[in-house]
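A quick aside before the break. I want you to see a complete sequence-to-structure record at least once, exactly as it would be stored in a machine-readable document. Don't worry about memorizing anything.
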Amino acid sequence: MPAITRLQRMNRGSQFRAFVLRGDAQSKPIDPFLGVDHAWTSGATFPPHPHAGFSAVSYLFLDSETGIANRDSLGNQNLIRPGGLHWTAAGRGVIHEEVPAEDGKMVHMLQIFVNLSAEKQAAPPFVLSLEPGDVPVVHLNGATVRVPLGRFEDAISPVTPPTEVRLLDIALDAGHELRISIPEGHVAFVLPVGGELWVDGQLFNLSEPTAPVDLPGSADRMVVLKAMGVNARAVMFSGVPLNQPVFWHGPLAMASPSALVKALESYNRGDFGEL
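That is the input. The structure line, written in tokens, reads:
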């Protein structure tokens, strides 16, 4: 059976609420992911802020009422539409802002924080974007799987990120199951999104917000997802662990104390740029 991690509830009034998953500093069960926020937002929740040392990834679910207006200090300005994905590899530093495109309309999204290897933390920042229509979709009996990152069956995402990860957005009809193999060398976890989801025979839903983590990857490892009496939605994440330390200071995360000090000095000098 997988290890179980409880999700933290976060509520900032009517404009933002989320279930938050963070990696454990000791066991690191979700490495190379640093954390995931499964969020609903209708206000300017993410004003201009710095990032360094990791990637900030936004994925919008198809049921979002509006998109996210995104801009950064590299000069990028775009709309992340429902069903789309935007990947900001912060590298040595960038300033970033995201706000709902239409105030008062709800965005249903994932904010995903993916670590970068130590050498890539010193690289210039860059972005990757994926439009909703370019996300591969696999239709199976009683299941629909969108593949924004990585591959599933014969579907391969056109995005090649700087950290090897996979993201599957899964919808399961009641009474159906889906068997998913985990790529060799990956560690996986599942985030329940809606309904009642059974993972390897264990029930997960948002009434008791927990997530199965530490699902090891091997050539013959299959994770079985089932929807019993009601439809279910979930996201499966997996990636190759980096097995490196993480030193945080606010939205900066580096692989060593000296690299963190250098990033802070760079930010204070204004080297991250401005919006």
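Two observations worth writing down. The chain has one domain: 3-269. The chain has a mean pLDDT of 94. We'll return to this after the break.
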